[in-house]
Each structure stands twice: as structure tokens, then as C-alpha cells.
Amino acid sequence: MEKILFDAQLGIPSEIECGTNRIKWNEAAYPEYSGIRTFDKMKALYENPEGIPEQREMYYTAGRVARKIDMDFFKSNGITYEYTIIPVCDVNGECNKTHGHVHGINPATGKRRMEAFEILHGYGCFELFKEVGRNEFDCLVVLLEKGDCFIVPSDFFHLSINLSLSDPFIFADLIKDDVDTIYSYVKEKNGGPYRMLHDQDGEMYYRLNSNWADCRINLKVMRCKDCNWQNPLAGKKLYEGFIENTQRVKEILEG
Question: Residue 12: helix, strand or coil by DSSP?
């Protein structure tokens, strides 16, 4: 059974076993907390949920991941380093994804908190959307692969999707400890504006979520290198970038 190590460059390689999706956290930086989102909490977000077991494990999260020597530093600065792991799961043609949300507002600035991401393994996308007028939304699909880093800008709802038919989609993020999450449109309309699916030949395509049919959706698909929110830390990995340029990262994440 193939095992995938992720974050090995940091010296804290955890692993996932393909097929069984068993995860082994590395003792050098064991997460303080972890979670599993099962299908019964997700099925309303899919076009056709028939035939998928209610307790199917759809994706995994882990937070407060840090080398022991760095843990107090992260905590004193109010920043958390997290993992999200989205295994391959075909939901009647639709790609596996996370639930999706938007961040709460920073009371000091009146702006929503931001979040920085780094892709550790696989191939996927982030679907970002925000309201720009009455029943009108901009929807951006940012295609991502291993090594890509980017910032989710303020005011965008975001959900992540595994576009691969063979590999888990794994990414890390940096986020403020005090961020709250708001689901609103995702819950009201059972997912984001567009669904990502594979046809019988394995080719990916996009389809409008019918629950958004009463809205005007301005869709734009782009690669990470073409967006304006790439890693501001001059090629550093997120973890190392935070350690070396703490104040800059805090300013970005606080919104």
C-alpha cells in the first residue's frame, strides 16, 4: 500500500496510506487537535449523494502543528499552522471537497481575516466567491498543485476541491487563532456556485449548482501563478516564512 509523506522538508513528515486513508502524525510535531468530516455532515453539498455511506470519511484536518521548539512562539503570536487532507472520493461523478466558509471580521480593522495556504501534495482547486451586487457574485476557481502558495483575500467564501482521480489533495495553512467561520451562502445554497465533476473518460468539467440559478455568476478560472495573491514571503515555505518574518505574516492574516 503506497504511503505519502507530506511536509518532509520541514523535518516533520506525517504520512497518509493511500486506499485506507490512515494517517500517522509525526511525533516531532504532533497536532494538538484533529478532526474528521464524515459524509452525513456533507451530503447536502453534493448534487447526487445516493449510495455514499453516511460515515464515509470525506476529509481530515489537524491544527496547532509545530515543532516542539516553535510551539510557544506560535501560541504567543496567536497564529496556528494547520493541515487539511482531502482523499479521492467520487460522489457520483462529483469531486470530493471541503465544506466551505468565509471568515469573521477583525473588529480592529472592520475587514475579514485572511488565510495563507501552501499545497503539499496533489492537485486541486479553491473555489472562491463573493457578492458584488444584488444577486450577483464573482466566482474564482484557482487551480493549484504541489508547491503553490497563495492568500485567500478578504470577503471571499472559499472551499477546496480535490481534482485528482488518484491522489489526495493536501495543503497547509496559517491562520489567526481567533478566526471564526461563517457558512451562510454555503448552507443556504448547498455548496458553492459551481460543481467540479469528472465525465466517464475522467475529464474534468464545471457545472452550475442549480441552487444558484437565480443569481448571476461571473466565473473565472485561473492558475495560482496568474492570481494576485501569491506567497508574499519570497519563495519561503509558510512555516519558515512565519518564523523568519513574523510581523509581516501577522499583518497579512489580520486583514
Answer: coil
Order of strands, sheet of 57-63, starting from the edge strand that comes earlier in the sequence: 33-38, 57-63, 79-86, 169-176, 115-121, 149-152
Residue 3 has, within 13 A of its CA and on its CB side, a CA count of 9
Q: Residue type for 221, please?
A: V
Taking the C-alpha atoms of residue 34 and residue 39, their distance in angstroms, rounded to an integer, is 17
Structural domains of the chain in order of their starting residue, each with its CATH number:
34-254 (2.60.120.10)
- Tens of pLDDT, residue by residue over 153-212, are 888 999 999 999 999 999 999 999 988 888 988 999 999 999 999 998 999 999 999 999
Helix (H) or strand (E) holding 145: strand 136-145
pLDDT in tens, 129-151: 999 999 999 999 999 999 998 88
